[in-house]
Hints:
Structural class: alpha+beta
Radius of gyration: 21 Å
Number of helices: 11
Strand content: 15-25%
CATH topology of the largest domain: Ribosomal Protein S5, domain 2
Helix content: 40-55%
CATH class of the largest domain: Alpha Beta
Order of helices and strands: HEEEEHEHHHEEEHHHHHEEHEE
Distance between the termini: 42 Å
Number of domains: 2
Mean pLDDT: 95
Shape: globular
Low-confidence stretches: none
CATH architecture of the largest domain: 2-Layer Sandwich
Largest sheet: 8 strands, mixed
Bound molecules: adenosine-5'-diphosphate, magnesium ion
Amino acid sequence: xxxxxxxxxxxxxxxxxxxxxxxxxxxxxxxxxxxxxxxxxxxxxxxxxxxxxxxxxxxxxxxxxxxxxxxxxxxxxxxxxxxxxxxxxxxxxxxxxxxxxxxxxxxxxxxxxxxxxxxxxxxxxxxxxxxxxxxxxxxxxxxxxxxxxxxxxxxxxxxxxxxxxxxxxxxxxxxxxxxxxxxxxxxxxxxxxxxxxxxxxxxxxxxxxxxxxxxxxxxxxxxxxxxxxxxxxxxxxxxxxxxxxxxxxxxxxxxxxxxxxxxxxxxxxxxxxxxxxxxxxxxxxxxxxxxxxxxxxxxxxxxxxxxxxxxxxxxxxxxxxxxxxxxxxxxxxxxxxxxxxxxxxxxxxxxxxxxxxxxxxxxxxxxxxxxxxxxxxxxxxxxxxxxxxxxxxxx
Length: 395
Ligand code: ADP
Ligand code: MG
């Protein structure tokens, strides 16, 4: 028996025209425009971002959309089609993190970060509609932020480059929302492209689009949301970061990005056993990202399965951030036809991805659901994503 999926995982986005009509009903006038920005999945490169390494996310076909109408005063009125939260009012003159409520901290954080950069943000009415599932590791929060910053960049004529928008949304998340996130999610959302993954160097923010057209290769990317959110995720994240910093210090490098696979043997003699395994994950994961980029360019998506598997093993055994549900999702999808699978995201819960031949999709889904039921786990949410376009204006 399959679980009822989160409605957002199957819901098509409202069209720009529908959203504009809804805006008109709510606010009594037409919006100035509609913008969208997608969520993302990280194909490979986990816990490498804060080590100044490489990541390879892709923008997905699930997006946040915002209809916005500029006002002549400094008032802000914000409404989401999701849930039952009602209209939220704020004012540009008094934007502060402490008084921002619920989901509005994401759009308000972006406005605040733009103000900090000296951009004059106008008062506005904003209607949000998103089909990026919340808290499933697909970055529904950055989808909102990237849609809003794209809109404000256009509406204010601020002329920000994508790199600057990336940093402004990071500032919003770090200093307004209070989430210690990096630059991966918004880089994928702002700079993604249909049929491509975004190869991002977290040291200098340079980006290269890499062909990743799973559909064309007869593959689908399944996301298996385990619905597990472990209470020790925050502590686990902090302790992994601390181990990486210690490793870099002992090895005398600026960041673990500067350690090569060939250096690992020597590092083993310098580090305690646990720190060594943490370092080995980061160093080998960076190498796997580079190999994945090469293989995607030369042979295509059908060739990267073993790298996804190796990434999962490294997170499970060396970095120790997996959990039984994620391991079950990976093992059962692999045993039943997926060509490669790994947990994706920060770990201790969240989602796994399984690259699967299209004709085996139903078989893999059924096998994973069965394995979860047999283990007594809560039913997972399973859905497909495809590499899609980055943020854009729709109307
Ligand atoms: P993730 O970004 O991985 O999905 P976060 O905890 O960072 O998880 O962001 C989830 C939060 O984003 C939600 O708690 C909610 O505040 C906000 N959010 C996401 N989508 C919507 C939406 N459609 N309407 C209102 N709030 C949303
Ligand atoms: Mg988030």
